[in-house]
Amino acid sequence: MGVLEKAPAAGAVNARVLGGSAGDDDNTTTTILLAHGYGGDQSVWDYITPQLSESHRIVTFDWIFSAAAATRGDADDAPFDAEKYSSYEAFADELVSLIERMDLGPVVFVGHSMSGMVGCIASVKRPDLFRHLVLLGSSPRYLNSEDYKGGFEESEVKTLLHNIETNFKAWAHDFASVVVAGAHSAAAVAATDRYRAGLTGMRPEAALAVGRAIFLSDNRAVLGLVEVPCTVVQTNADAVVPMHVAEYMQGEMKAALEVVDCEGHVPQLMAPDLVVEVFERILGRV
Length: 286
Known about the structure:
Layout: E1 2-4, E2 12-18, E3 31-35, H1 49-52, E4 57-63, H2 67-72, H3 89-102, E5 107-112, H4 114-125, E6 130-136, H5 154-166, H6 168-180, H7 186-200, H8 204-215, H9 220-223, E7 230-237, H10 243-253, E8 256-263, H11 267-270, H12 272-283
Parallel strand pairs: 3-4, 3-5, 5-6, 6-7, 7-8
Antiparallel strand pairs: 1-2, 2-4
Helix pairs in contact: 3-4, 5-6, 5-8, 6-7
Family: Belongs to the AB hydrolase superfamily.
Domain AB hydrolase-1: 32-277
Protein name: AB hydrolase-1 domain-containing protein
């Protein structure tokens, strides 16, 4: 396993290379770049990377807002730059920078949740760096409007952001259960505990800034600009991203749609074998 030292002030940190041609210049091996979502870190992929790395080069990293980055000190003790991360643009620029620094492209990019749209924006900026986009549980807009149903009313988002700002730990504890979902099986409990640890470990100011960027953004116009081939991956019951959002993205991007037969927003924790099965099917078409 190789580790890339972070560049100063980089928002994508602690990049790691697993399997495939890690550390080599063999361009025949498919490189899969896995980007975690809000409340996670690269460990969210731990259940699927062992299988994927048997035949592919896997690269994972932590976004600067993650609990892992804060714990290691990558985030330093400076205040989180809320203005910089008030939209996905900064994340997209840092994703491009990461791919360039590591000389990875063109990659198969897997973006979970918010990172899916980050990947879309980055691919519009630099399509040459991306071979295929896999958007796992992603959404271009979470707010409902007259012509679009993102899943959340404006009042619900205002309450959510207010709770992050005023009672972060309690909000994170409850929100983790909503995000992971599923029955009260051992797998669901373990997945919820794991996601909750990442969510509560974020610095509150980072959680609020990125939460605003996510839940108040409207990136629908980006979808039609994406030229890189794309597959939308969705569970059959996601409280954060309804199925009709995935179908909307499929239509706007002329993308393929794959459904993971499980509940929740974090299937890589709930049903990793099913996720690997879907990813391998996608990779077989790339």
